[in-house]
Amino acid sequence: MFKKGSNYSRNDVSKITLGTDKPKGGDWDTGYVRVNDDLLIFMNIGVSGVTGHDFNNSYDTESELITWFGKPNTHSNQPLMKRIINGSINCHFFARWDNKLTDFVYLGIGNVISFEDGAEGKNSLGKVVPTIKFVISCKDAPNIIIDEENKSINSTFALEKHLEEFIVDNWNNISLGKNYYRCEKEVEGKRKKFRTDTGEIDIFAKSKDEKEFLIIELKKGRASDKVIGQIQNYMGFVKEELANNGEIVKGIIIALEDDQRIRRALKVTNNIEFYRYKINFNLEKVITS
Asked: Three-state secondary structure along 43-86?
């Protein structure tokens, strides 16, 4: 329907989706408009809209991550927001960096990674108003699973590399970043994983007080007990080859789910913890002993 990186005016989008020129007024002149099972989102980045509404939208060209704010007073319990979150509507993102231009760049179909109610923006009068904030991926992105029993939402990542990229890109915003820094090298601006004699460590870190090494192993869905042997191999290598000043070597497994076998194995395993990843990328430590 649309080509990523190409320019489209609102009228162009209307002709493609409706087969006619853009209707005058209404939602077509606002931040987003719904056409059947498509939501057409027109974002201003770094500038306010022509109506004066101002939200801190952003787009990272390398990771293809979007930070996008809904209209004033929107929240996750509204029907359209629920459809965005559960992926039952296709969200097409168009962006411009100059509100004097009529054309927007098509960024692609976005998938929700996380959302936050009660974020702040400014309405047309410059007054601070609450709204919903989304983090969106325009790559092959996660599906959203809604846990009806607990009324919580978790993100499952299409590939482990997406989970890894998200943690690395948001390291300073998650709990681990408070106490650890990543000690991986960069080659020509790209992160290089730390390699052991049995494979590459997903994420390798060290405590800010220099007393601990941390090996992080990621699983996009449910982790099995096999991952314990894998992370122990990495930990053994680090202990023998790098921990020359008495540093402690710890391991963390991050996954969406665990099972009884891994819980039992972890009860008799030293220095390895299990975390579940959750919406807004909070990490929930699982007590195993």
From this structure: EECCCCCCCCCECCCEEECCCCEEEEECCCCCCCCCHHHHHHHH
Mean pLDDT on 165-189: 85
Residues 115-129: b if buried by 16+ CB within 10 A, e if exposed:
beeebebbbeeeeeb
Domain boundaries, the chain: 7-141, 160-286
Q: Per CATH, which fold does 160-286 belong to?
A: Trna Endonuclease; Chain: A, domain 1 (3.40.1350)
**Nearest-angstrom CA–CA distance, 262 and 278:** 19
The pLDDT mean for the chain works out to 83
d(CA 11, CA 197): 58
Q: Distance from first CA to last CA of the chain, Å, rounded?
A: 53
**7-141 CATH:** 2.30.280.20
Against a cut of 0.70, is the pTM above it?
A: no
Say how far apart CA 144 and CA 129 lie, in whole Å. Answer: 27
* Dihedral of alpha carbons 109, 257, 221, 201, sign: positive
For residue 157, give the nearest of 149, 148, 167 by alpha carbon: 167
Residue 261 has pLDDT above 80, yes or no: yes
Strands 103-122 and 7-9: antiparallel
Q: How many CB atoms lie within 10 A of CB 152?
A: 11
pLDDT tens track for 6-36: 899 999 999 999 989 998 878 898 889 999 8
